[in-house]
Specification:
The complex is a heterodimer of chains A (about 325) and B (about 240). Chain A has helices at about 1-10, 15-30, 40-65, 70-85, 90-115, 120-140, 155, 170-185, 190-200, 200-205, 210-235, 245-255, 270-290, 295-320, and strands at about 160, 165. With about 325 residues, chain A is mostly helical. Chain A is globular and about 65 Å long. Chain B has 2 domains: about 1-80 and about 170-245, Rossmann fold, CATH 3.40.50; about 95-165, no CATH class. In chain B, about 30% of the residues lie in helices and about 30% in strands. Chain B contains 8 helices and 12 strands. In chain B, helix 4 (about 120-135) crosses helix 5. The two termini of chain B are about 25 Å apart. Classes of the chains: A mainly alpha (about 325), B alpha/beta (about 240). Chains A and B meet through helix 9 and helix 10 of A and helix 2 and strand 8 of B.
Chain lengths: ~325, ~240
C-alpha cells in the first residue's frame, strides 16, 4: 500500500491529472452543464490536437534535456511552405513531404548548432523562432496564397466518431501520443533519451550516441510542430503567417504542467498530453463560465507555477515515505 | 609474469600544448589487482580515459590478449570487455535500477537498425540476479537509482560491470564520497576480482586503500610512470617519495 502510494506520488503527471478532473467538475457546474455537452466537447477536441501534437514533441525534447522555442514559428512555416508549393501546382503529397522536410531540417539545424557549438538550446531556438517566422512571411510574399480545393480534408479535419464528436486530427493526435508514449517507455531509444537528459556524463560513459539522440529529438519536435500547423491551416482553410505565435511558450507550459522538468530526465508524454488538455479546457471553460477571457493567460501562468510547486512537494513527500529498497 | 591481458605501448596525449601522457607503457596480467596512484594532473585519469574510450590517445598502441585494438569510444571498450566504474558513477538518478543496468545495451525483443522494443522482464530478472551476485540486497529493480545511497549506487555499477562479463575492470576513484563501511566493501570487492579471473585497475588518491587491496602499485607523476612494483616489494614511504 505504502509502496503504491509512493509510486503514484512520484508520477509527475499526477498533479496535472487531479487538476484536470477538478477543473472539469468546476466548469461543468459553473456553466450549468454546458461544458461537457457534445457541442462544446466538439469545440475542445477539434482544436486540441493542434497544440497537443506540438506539446508531445516539446515534452520529449525536454526529457532529452533540451528546449525548443522555434516550434511556434515552424507551426506556421510548414503549412506556408506547402501552400506556396501547391499554389505553384505541386500536388498535396509532394508539398506535404517538402513541408515535413523543411521542418526536419530546422530541427536538425537547431540540434546541430546546439551540440556542435555547445550553446544553450534556448539561444539557438530563440534565433530560429525569428528566422522561421521571417521566412514564413517572406515566402508568402506578405499575402497568403489561396489553398486549392481538392485538399484531403477527409484525412485531417472532417468530423468523425460517435456523434461526430471529434475531427480526424484527433485520431492522429491519439495515434502519435500512443506511439510516442510507447517509444519512451518500451524502446531502447526511449531509454537513451531519458538517460541523455537525466545525466549526460553517464549516458556518454555508457556509450550512448548522445549527440545523435538529441538531434533526433530536435527533429521529431520540429516535425510534430509542422504537422500540427498543417492541420490548423487545413481546418482554417487559409495559411495565415501569424499562426502559432506564442504557442511555443504555451507548449512549454503544458509540458511543465504535465510534470516534465526543465532540467531533463523527468517527464512523460502522457503528462504533456494532460497539460495540453488542461490548457484547452481552461481556455474554453473560462469563456463558458462567463469569466473575462483575459484571465486565460493568468490561469496558464498560475497553473504552470502551481504544478511545479505541487510536484516538488509531492516528490518530497514521496521520498519521505520509507519503503524497503 | 604470465601473458598480459592488456598492454599499452608508448601512449602519448597532448591537450592543446599540454603533454599529459609522455610515452606510457604498461602491462596488466589477468587476475591481478593494480593500484594506480598519482597526484592531480599526473596523467592517471588520461590513461584511464583512453582505456575506457572516453578519450583517444594522440599516439601509441593498445593490445588486448596480444591483439592490437583500437578503442574509439566507450562502446568499443565495453565490447572488448573493459568496464569502467566512475567516481561520479555512471548512473542516471532519474531512472530505475533495471534501466540503468542496461543503458546502451538493452536486451531487445525485436529490433531494426539497432532500435527496438526492450525486454522489460529480462531486464528486471537479470538485474535482480546481478545485484544479488554482487552481494547487494535490493528488493525492487524498479526503484530509482536517485533513492539509493552512494554505496548502493556503486554496488549497482559493480553489478552491471560483472553482469557484462568484463575481463578488465577499471575503478576510477570508486571510494570518493563513500562512507567508511561502504569503502571497505569496495576494497573487498577489488580483492575478490582475482578469484573471478578479472584484472582490476584501481585508481585512488588514497594510498592506504591501494595498499590494502592491490598486488601491484603503479605510480604516475607528470605524465610518466615513476614507480611500478609488487605491493610486497615497496612501502608507502617509497611511493610517497616518488610522487
Amino acid at each position: 500500500m505504502k509502496r503504491l502510494l509512493k509510486i503514484y506520488m512520484e508520477k509527475p503527471e499526477l498533479a496535472a491529472l487531479v487538476l484536470l478532473v477538478l477543473l472539469v467538475v468546476v466548469f461543468q457546474v459553473k456553466s450549468d452543464g454546458i461544458f461537457l455537452n457534445a457541442n462544446n466537447l466538439r469545440g475542445i477536441l477539434g482544436i486540441l490536437p493542434e497544440i497537443g501534437l506540438m506539446v508531445i514533441g516539446v515534452t520529449i525534447l525536454m526529457i532529452c534535456g533540451e528546449f525548443d522555442l522555434s516550434v511556434g514559428s515552424v507551426f506556421a512555416l510548414m503549412p506556408m511552405t506547402m501552400a506556396v508549393l501547391m499554389a505553384d501546382g505541386a500536388p498535396f503529397i509532394l508539398a506535404f513531404i517538402a513541408g515535413m522536410a523543411a521542418s526536419a531540417a530546422i530541427g536538425f539545424v537547431n540540434g546541430f548548432l546546439t551540440i556542435k557549438y555547445n550553446i544553450p538550446s534556448f539561444i539557438t531556438t530563440l534565433g530560429m523562432l525569428f528566422i522561421a517566422r521571417s521566412l514564413t512571411i517572406v515566402i508568402s510574399g506578405g499575402f497568403p496564397p489561396l489553398l486549392p480545393n481538392d485538399l484531403p480534408n477527409w484525412l485531417f479535419t472532417v468530423f468523425v466518431g460517435p456523434g461526430e464528436l471529434f475531427r480526424m486530427s484527433f485520431v492522429w493526435f491519439v495515434l502519435v501520443a500512443v506511439l510516442a508514449s510507447l517509444m519512451m517507455s518500451r524502446t531502447n531509444f526511449g531509454n537513451w533519451i531519458r538517460a541523455t537528459g537525466g545525466f549526460l556524463p553517464a549516458a556518454q560513459a555508457m556509450g550512448i550516441p548522445t549527440a545523435r539522440v538529441k538531434i533526433a529529438c530536435f527533429m521529431l519536435c520540429s516535425m510534430l510542430a509542422g504537422f500540427a500547423g498543417m492541420i490548423q491551416v487545413l481546418r482554417l482553410g487559409s495559411p495565415l503567417p501569424s499562426i502559432g505565435e506564442g504557442w511555443e511558450l504555451q507548449a512549454v507550459a503544458a509540458a511543465v504542467i504535465g510534470g516534465t522538468a526543465l532540467s531533463g530526465g523527468i517527464g512523460a508524454v502522457l503528462g504533456g498530453v494532460i497539460g495540453a488538455i488542461l490548457i484547452r479546457v481552461i481556455d474554453n471553460g473560462l469563456v463558458l463560465s462567463q469569466v473575462d477571457a483575459n484571465w486565460f493567460k493568468f490561469a496558464i501562468g498560475f497553473l504552470t507555477i502551481f504544478a511545479v510547486v505541487v510536484n516538488t512537494w509531492l516528490g518530497k513527500r514521496a521520498k519521505a515515505i520509507k519503503v524497503e529498497t | 609474469m604470465t601473458q598480459p591481458i592488456i598492454s599499452v605501448r608508448n601512449l602519448h596525449k597532448w591537450y592543446s600544448g599540454v603533454h599529459a601522457l609522455k610515452g606510457v607503457s604498461l602491462d596488466f596480467s589477468p587476475n591481478e589487482a593494480v593500484g594506480l596512484i598519482g597526484d592531480n594532473g599526473a596523467g592517471k585519469s588520461t590513461l584511464i580515459n583512453i582505456l575506457s574510450g572516453a578519450q583517444q590517445a594522440s599516439e601509441g598502441e593498445i593490445f588486448l590478449d596480444n591483439q592490437k585494438v583500437s578503442i574509439r569510444n566507450p562502446r568499443d571498450a565495453m565490447d572488448l570487455g573493459i568496464e569502467t566504474i566512475y567516481q561520479y558513477n555512471s548512473m542516471v538518478p532519474t531512472m530505475s535500477i533495471a534501466r540503468n543496468m542496461f543503458i546502451g545495451r538493452e536486451p531487445l525483443k525485436f529490433s531494426m537498425l539497432g532500435l527496438g522494443a526492450m525486454d522489460h522482464r529480462k531486464m528486471a530478472e537479470e538485474s535482480v540476479a546481478a545485484i544479488a551476485g554482487a552481494g547487494l540486497h535490493l528488493r525492487s529493480p524498479d526503484a530509482l537509482v536517485g533513492e539509493l545511497s552512494g554505496g548502493q549506487r556503486q554496488g549497482v555499477a559493480i553489478a552491471r560491470a560483472m553482469h557484462f562479463k568484463s575481463k578488465v575492470m577499471i575503478l576510477d576513484e570508486p571510494t570518493n564520497h563513500l562512507a567508511v563501511k561502504e569503502t571497505n566493501k569496495v576494497i573487498d570487492f577489488v580483492q575478490s576480482l582475482k578469484d573471478l579471473n578479472i584484472t582490476g585497475i584501481f585508481i585512488s588518491h588514497n594510498i592506504h586503500h591501494v595498499f590494502e587491496c592491490c598486488d601491484r602499485i603503479v605510480a604516475m607523476a607528470r605524465g610518466e610512470v615513476v614507480l611500478d612494483k609488487r605491493t610486497t616489494d615497496t612501502n608507502m614511504d617509497e611511493v610517497l617519495d616518488v610522487l
